[in-house]
Design brief:
The complex is a heterotrimer of chains A (427), B (63) and C (514). Chain A has 427 residues and is α+β, with helices and mostly antiparallel strands. Chain A is built from 14 helices and 16 strands. In chain C, strands 16-17-15-18-19-20 form a 6-stranded parallel β-sheet, with helices on both faces. A 5-stranded parallel β-sheet of chain C has the order 11-10-12-13-14, sandwiched between helices. Chain C has a 3-stranded antiparallel β-sheet with strand order 1-3-2, with helices on both faces. The chains are: A alpha+beta (427), B alpha+beta (63), C alpha/beta (514). Chains in contact: A-B, A-C, B-C.
């Protein structure tokens, strides 16, 4: 970079470069395989979790429960007690999924033999990984480690994954960008509503499955997986968002956010010009609507890698596409009208660098989604990224307890600015 | 948007033919102007950088 | 029939949206057939079936918009394309909740006709917001206080470079284009312009002018520090320029607390080049210097208002202490003093407006000797213990000392009610002197809010064999949100003597003490 440019100009140019790379990603779901076979650095005793790096001792309860469940699934422990002992022994390698080109939803723990989605960015050939959902409400990612959950994980690994793999090979990959773009016109926002995405996926995928040599039984299992999980496509979307953001990492001088994630204890961000450093603050409590039988007392602090969708400009940032989401607004006291949803998206334009022409919002006269969170804009306007999210339970073994809205904490951005000042010697 | 080419550069009466106001701050001022049939916009202002002065000074060097 | 096929690369529109555009353009005169579609294989088939084909169309991708028109003539086609373009343009849909934004940037983007900013954010960041607003070409009312003098100077220099004005910081009042901003009164439009470095000073002047049947063009605030020798009256000078150039303004009034010496001289020099008659109320200024500058000196806010009206009407101004006749005034004074005990001798002013307190200090000072205050005219008259008055005194309850973290006495009556009750406990107190300030921002019924304590205080004095006189004036107009007439009546019903101006109220209070 030309040394004669002012720091403002350097930042501008760096951000432009980052956004160009991010906008031009071509996320494609190419295959399904076991984590150990494809995730870089994944060893037999490695467990991957959402959010900034965390040690077992300090993990929130859903993650602990999920860790026990994962070790039982792996056959490394027979029950929760043995799992706990093993985890305390130091033999298990606990790592942040983000450090392995992966994302994990809610309290999910990805382990060696779990099947993972392989998402490829055709633009630069890089690959990203995420797990699948074995169940909707009571599941590993909410800390369930019971027999049912372990059985479902095995079913996913033995029955579903191979079938998905064959179908994906047959079709040559699923263009996720296309599905996301269309779904934004169909009432999805990409984080809490993925129903249109799932339908669009199913529309292309079922015919492909029928072209393979899979048995009717195997195809039926896949069909019922989709039937019973109308938000199935969230995970390929999360991986697509990871691909988008990762395309723009490590650009010197850039102030664009490349990750947002939480582990139930801390909320963390990464910034392009500041490499792999996490800037963290205590994970906030989500303001939400609770399912029957649950209240705030049952809620875990904000948890999961799913806000990678917001970081990439969809999810809560695309709330204008998904008026139904606004009912969460009633819990925040903001009202919960359609106009509120639109206002949230409009707010996000104030803190992002560009509008993604591939992901348009019909209600805003086809403006692109607000993409590329700039920490300088966040700090300048005092406007924090808005996130729609599910709420995890605060004990292991329960279900999702609700869903709502939460803001990324200001402290993450303040820390990032201080680090930027030091790194680039701003006087 | 910068000032020198701004469409509001003075032409005619100094304050313009009619006031079109951005109210940055307390709501009652916005309401009182509305009562007087003024075209007024309320800005729900948030302090920059969580209110930390020295961070704001740094920020102003970068934006 | 003429056919035309246009391919617009990388212009995606939703298929349903395009169908709507299609349908609308089909209705135009002279159109035979039309197909506006994205270049997918299916759509190309459809377009070919409709009789449209070209190499460009065949080469179109699903990201490209294909516009096919068959019409009677080239002109019909041109017209159709123009209409299509209008329909394809991203129109801003009018919002339901139009008025609220999160940033000034958003406002300027969506409402570029915005030309004014009222800023009342915490002082620490107020200058920053004002700078942003100025750079957008807006004039600014900077209501916030706790802005540093360095920031003020920088802002006002910036405003000068941009041919704009910053009213403030700490500017509580302005009336611009007949709109009352922040704490301001509703006044008749007219021919007198005002530039004031004091909020309630501005309010008293426009109020008196209005009640005399004249009106205001612009009432420009400058903030209290503008005429210091550090700030050098940048906004006052700009205000004078504005009024000088304003065709509707025939007479100019300028008001300030004692200005810096150099600044006062500068401003008088400026006025000497003005074509319009200017009335100058600089507290403590030498009238001779004002006259030498070709301007008209005024000792009080009241005099400034009366002289402005007289000048406008080409009348001769005759100074009078009271509007009431001498006989009426004497009667009033006697009535108030009749039941007082001999020990009662002091006046205690309890003010919500700083400039009104100043005016009272000056007027009563002449009649009674030095008046104590928290904002005294001379340092040796400063009250140390502000929990109550001292000898003859006027306390400005709107001063920072009282309003840190607490609401202003123009909005909340509590502090003044407490002082009313505590002053009466002192048997040497003869008269309470009050200002009731109306207008936007002020309490909706201050007279009512003070009446209970006034009645109680008077009863208390009576119970011990004395009499507490309460004298007041109402600063405002008939058009203010509060009911001016009703405020006067409520006060009178409590036994308050209501005078037409603050100056006359102060004079009467002093006479009662003599």
């Amino acid at each position: 970079m030309d040394q004669h440019l002012s720091i403002k100009e350097k930042i501008k140019l760096a951000n432009q470069s980052v956004l160009e790379k991010m906008i031009s990603t071509q996320p494609t779901w190419i295959d399904v395989a076991n984590a150990g076979a494809v995730i870089p650095g994944m060893e037999r005793y490695t467990l991957l979790h959402a959010g900034p790096p965390q040690c077992y001792k300090n993990m929130c309860n859903p993650q602990k429960g999920a860790a026990w469940g994962a070790l039982i699934f792996e056959g490394l422990a027979k029950n929760a007690k043995e799992a706990d002992d093993l985890l305390n022994s130091g033999e298990i390698c606990i790592e942040s999924a983000h450090d392995h080109d992966s994302v994990a939803g809610a309290g999910q723990i990805i382990s060696y033999n779990q099947p993972v989605i392989i998402l490829k960015n055709l633009t630069n050939g890089k690959r990203y990984y995420t797990h699948m959902k074995e169940d909707t409400f009571v599941a590993l990612r909410y800390g369930s480690y019971n027999e049912h959950t372990i059985g479902r994980l095995k079913w996913l690994a033995n029955t579903i994954a191979p079938a998905l793999s064959k179908g994906l090979q047959k079709i040559g990959g699923i263009n996720c960008k296309d599905i996301i773009a269309k779904s934004l016109f169909m009432g999805d926002e990409g984080h809490n509503r993925n129903q249109a995405e799932t339908c669009l996926f199913e529309q292309i995928f079922m015919p492909a499955l029928l072209e393979t040599d899979l048995s009717k039984e195997q195809i039926r299992e896949c069909a019922y997986l989709l039937k019973n999980d109308e938000n199935f496509f969230l995970y390929p979307v999360m991986a697509s968002c990871k691909a988008l953001l990762d395309a723009g990492t490590h650009e010197p001088y850039s102030t664009i956010v490349t990750t947002m994630a939480r582990n139930g204890t801390e909320f963390g961000i990464k910034v392009s010009g500041l490499g792999d450093t996490w800037f963290t603050a205590p994970a906030p409590m989500v303001k939400g609507l609770y399912f029957p039988g649950f209240t705030e007392k049952d809620a875990c602090p904000d948890l999961g890698d799913s806000c990678i969708t917001e970081a990439a400009g969809i999810g809560g940032f695309a709330m204008a596409a998904s008026p139904a989401i606004v009912h969460f607004g009633t819990a925040t006291g903001v009202g919960g009208s359609v106009q509120d949803a639109i206002n949230y998206t409009k707010e996000m334009y104030e803190i992002t660098e560009t509008e993604n022409p591939s992901y348009q919002l019909a209600y805003l006269d086809f403006r692109g989604c607000p993409t590329g969170i700039d920490i300088l804009k966040v700090l300048n306007h005092g406007i924090l990224p808005i996130i729609n999210t599910s709420i995890s339970p605060n004990v292991a073994g329960k279900s999702q307890v609700g869903a709502g809205l939460v803001r990324a904490p200001m402290d993450c951005f303040k820390k990032a600015l201080r680090a930027f000042t030091e790194t680039y010697q701003v006087e | 948007m910068d000032n020198k080419d701004h469409p509001n550069k003075k032409v005619g009466p100094f304050f313009g033919e009619r006031l079109v106001v951005a109210n940055i701050g307390i709501q009652p001022f916005y309401e009182d102007m509305k009562k007087q049939n003024v075209t007024v916009f309320q800005i729900d202002w948030e302090p920059p950088a969580g209110g930390e002065r020295e961070l704001v000074d740094i920020l102003d060097k970068l934006i | 029939m003429i056919t035309r096929i246009i391919v617009r690369k990388n212009q995606y529109r939703d298929s349903v949206f395009l169908m709507v555009v299609n349908q609308q353009v089909m209705k135009f005169p002279g159109i035979g057939e039309i197909a506006i579609m994205m270049g997918t294989d299916n759509n190309k088939d459809l377009m070919m079936k409709a009789g449209f084909d070209s190499p460009d169309m065949q080469a179109a991708t699903p990201n490209d918009m294909t516009i096919c028109i068959r019409a009677e003539s080239a002109e019909h086609i041109e017209k159709a394309i123009q209409e299509i373009d209008k329909l394809l343009v991203k129109k801003r849909r009018p919002d339901e909740k139009t008025d609220t934004y999160k940033t000034l940037d958003a406002v300027m983007r969506e409402r570029p006709e915005t030309n004014f900013a009222v800023i009342s954010v915490p002082g620490q960041f107020a200058a920053r917001e004002a700078r942003k607003a100025l750079n957008y070409g807006l004039n600014v009312l900077l209501f916030s206080d706790n802005v540093t003098i360095e920031e003020e100077i920088e802002l006002k220099n910036l405003a000068n470079r941009l041919d704009r004005i910053v009213m403030g910081p700490d500017c509580g009042t302005a009336i611009i284009n007949y709109v009352g901003l922040a704490f301001a009164n509703v006044v008749n439009p007219g021919s007198i312009g005002v530039v004031a470095a004091t909020g309630t000073g501005l309010q008293e002047v426009v109020g008196i002018i209005d009640r005399l049947g004249e009106g205001i063009t612009q009432a420009i605030g400058t903030g209290g520090r503008d005429l210091s020798d550090r700030v050098q009256g940048i906004s006052m000078k700009k205000g004078i320029d504005i009024l000088e150039e304003d065709p509707a303004t025939k007479v100019i009034v300028i008001i300030s607390k004692p200005p810096g010496l150099q600044t006062a001289a500068d401003i008088l020099k400026k006025i000497s080049t003005c074509s319009k008659k200017t009335i100058v109320n600089f507290i403590g200024a030498d009238p001779a210097a004002v006259i030498a500058a070709g301007a008209i000196p005024a000792k009080t806010l009241e005099e400034a208002s009366l002289k402005a009206v007289a000048t406008l009407r080409d009348d001769v101004y005759t100074a009078k202490d009271f509007q009431l006749s001498d006989r009426e005034v004497t009667g009033l004074i006697q009535k108030e003093k009749k039941r007082m005990q001999p020990a009662q001798k002091y006046v205690r002013g309890l003010y919500s407006g700083g400039a009104l307190c100043d005016e009272a200090l000056a007027i009563m000072g002449e009649q009674l000797g030095g008046i104590f205050s928290n904002i005294p005219l001379q340092p040796h008259l400063k009250i140390e213990n502000l929990s109550h008055g001292f000898r003859h005194s006027c306390i400005d309850l709107g001063d920072d000392y009282f309003t840190q973290g607490k609401p202003h006495p123009m909005i909340y009556p509590d502090v003044r009610n407490r002082y009313i009750m505590s002053e009466v406990e002192n048997a040497e107190v003869a008269v309470l002197l009050l200002d009731i300030v109306l207008g936007y921002g002020a309490h909706i019924d201050m007279a009512g809010a003070l009446s209970k304590s006034i009645i109680s205080a008077k009863s208390l004095a009576e119970a011990r064999g004395g009499y507490l006189s309460v004298v007041a004036s109402v600063c405002g107009t008939q058009k203010d949100p509060q009911n001016f007439g009703e405020q006067v009546i409520k006060l009178k019903q409590c036994g308050v003597v209501v005078m037409p101006t603050n100056a006359q109220a102060a004079r009467l209070a002093a006479y009662i003490c003599q």
